[in-house]
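As the next step, I selected for study one protein, both as residues and as discrete backbone shape codes, as given directly below:
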Amino acid sequence: MVWQTEVDVRITAGSWTSCFVARRLGPVWRDRSIWRPVFIEAAAKLDIARRGTDIGIRNKRPDQHWLAARRTGTVEYAAFAISAEVRGFVALSQTEVQTPSAIWLRQHHAGEIVSTAGAPRLLADLAVAGVGKVVLPYFEEQDIESLQQVGPVIGALTHAEWLVRHHEARHDAPVRAALDVVAQVLADRNSMMSD
């Protein structure tokens, strides 16, 4: 049953983080909550300051004083494939917003790109099919079981992760509740990664 007092809370993050949080939301969010999750998958950052979104999961700490941030952990990337014998890489199409991992891949392995796709999830599917290697955040390893890490952690892509909101959202009960749930999902991920 949907309660009439539910408020949409917009959560934005990159593709992989959005998928990760969405897949794990069920056990920690209840349909009788005071908020309703609205996921906005976005490689480009939406404006939290102008309320383009309520919660952002970001790869750097915001420097605007009207935004509040909580560090959630560190995200590492590596190349993954179905086996170490796979050659070449699959890459995000150049017509799409280029993520840091897509930029890195083109800067370091442009001549090895064997296929492109318009969405990050399609890149993983191409890698599962054996078409090429894919650069993924390390936490995706647990959800795409047929892929294995085939290269070292890519230090240039390692970054802190931040849960960001407008500082006035601390007075907004639905946003506070959503922040707690998202923070729990990310904390659980970090504890799984360290085990």
Observations:
- The chain has a mean pLDDT of 88.
